[in-house]
Design goal:
It is an enzyme of class 4 (lyase). This is Terpene synthase. Belongs to the terpene synthase family. InterPro entries: Isoprenoid_synthase_dom_sf, Terpene_cyclase-like_2. Keywords: Lyase, Magnesium, Metal-binding. With 319 residues, the protein is mainly alpha-helical. It has a domain of 157 residues: Farnesyl Diphosphate Synthase (Orthogonal Bundle), CATH 1.10.600.10. 70% of the residues lie in helices and 1% in strands. It is built from 15 helices and 2 strands. It has a two-stranded parallel sheet. Helix 1 crosses helix 3, helix 4 packs antiparallel against helix 6 and helix 9 packs across helix 14. The longest helix has 27 residues. The protein is globular and about 50 Å long. The relative contact order is 0.15. The model has no long low-confidence stretch (mean pLDDT 92).
């Protein structure tokens, strides 16, 4: 199959480099190299290096020192490695292991014969959640639960050899993208905590949902070449192709248009945000964080070794 050519992706937000990215990378690799010196290696260190995960988190939080990002970076790496480890396993087993992982995040100790990943998650949890306010911890756990549900549903779709209608796929992807976890973490990392009633305001819920769509559609475009090699792997382009009976290249262009429309919708929704009174400053920091995550995700997708270079080279950035 000849390489698919994607139109440029629209992203008006500036790239922000982390000034101590090298330190962030070196410290993360040192931590994970120590974890991987076991007979039951569950993460490929070389693959981890190619992933460039410190770049993703560093560009999303460019003003924070590496010591503030360490636990969050380890959790990010854990999530990607967990996703790799669970790829292709039976949905029933994935569900069992996912709920065990959720229990660990809630404070449970893994069984002796549990997957090494679960023991590693226990250590990350202590550093990630130990000193956080109770309300925030509960919200973060709910975000993780939503992510696990999304990945379980995706596994069932693949096992059933299904291609979802676009509306069903959109709802599934909003869970499996995992953005609610990083958006919730953003508050803890950046040092602001918004009350539940503010976060539940329809305007903020809508804005965060749109940011999720932008990031999810970008990831689907970058991963398309890989997903085409994997029978019935859920992807926005494939759902568009089926529902609209489009050739693959036209379905790809339709997905790009959905991405760009979501970016423009984000800008409109941002401008329309109401005042939140005493919480206006914190809401502004949340919005800035969403902008940074959208850009960081796009930049990372162009540089990570997780996606084929042919895909990355065709998805240009627009400043």
């Amino acid at each position: 199959m000849s390489p698919l050519v994607s139109p440029p992706l629209f992203c008006p937000f500036p790239t922000q480099e982390h000034p101590r990215l090298r330190q962030l990378e070196e410290e993360a690799l040192a931590r994970w190299a120590g974890q991987l010196e076991t007979p039951t290696q569950h993460v490929d260190l070389e693959k981890l290096c190619r992933g460039h995960f410190p770049l993703l988190l560093g560009r999303a939080h460019p003003t924070l020192p590496p010591e503030r990002l360490g636990a969050a970076l380890d959790f990010l790496i854990w999530c990607f490695s967990w996703n790799d480890q669970m790829a292709g396993v039976p949905p029933v087993w994935l569900q069992e292991q996912s709920w065990l992982a959720l229990a660990v995040l809630q404070g449970a100790t893994p069984a002796r014969d549990a997957l090494p990943s679960l023991w590693l998650l226990r250590d990350i949890r202590e550093r990630l959640l130990g000193s956080m306010p109770r309300d925030w911890r509960e919200r973060f756990i709910r975000a993780c639960q939503s992510y696990f549900r999304g990945t379980i549903c995706e596994a069932r779709v693949r096992a059933g050899r299904l291609c979802l209608e676009v509306s069903s796929y959109v709802e599934l992807r909003r869970m499996s993208a995992g953005t609610s976890m990083v958006f919730t973490q953003m508050e803890a990392l950046e040092g602001f905590f918004l009350p539940e009633d503010t976060l539940a305001h329809p305007a903020l819920v809508q804005l965060m949902r749109t940011a999720t769509d932008v990031m999810a559609w970008a990831n689907d475009l970058f991963s398309l070449e890989c997903d085409l090699r994997d029978d019935f792997h859920p992807n926005l382009v494939l759902s568009l192709q089926l529902e609209r009976t489009l050739p693959l290249d036209e379905a790809l262009r339709a997905a790009v248009e959905m991405h760009d429309t979501a970016v423009r919708r984000f800008l409109v929704q941002e401008r329309a945000l109401p005042s939140f009174g005493a919480h206006d400053a914190a809401v502004s920091r949340l919005v800035l964080g969403l902008r940074r995550w959208i850009r960081a995700n796009l930049d990372w997708s162009l540089l990570t070794g997780r996606y084929p270079r042919t895909a990355a080279s065709q998805c240009s950035r627009v400043a």
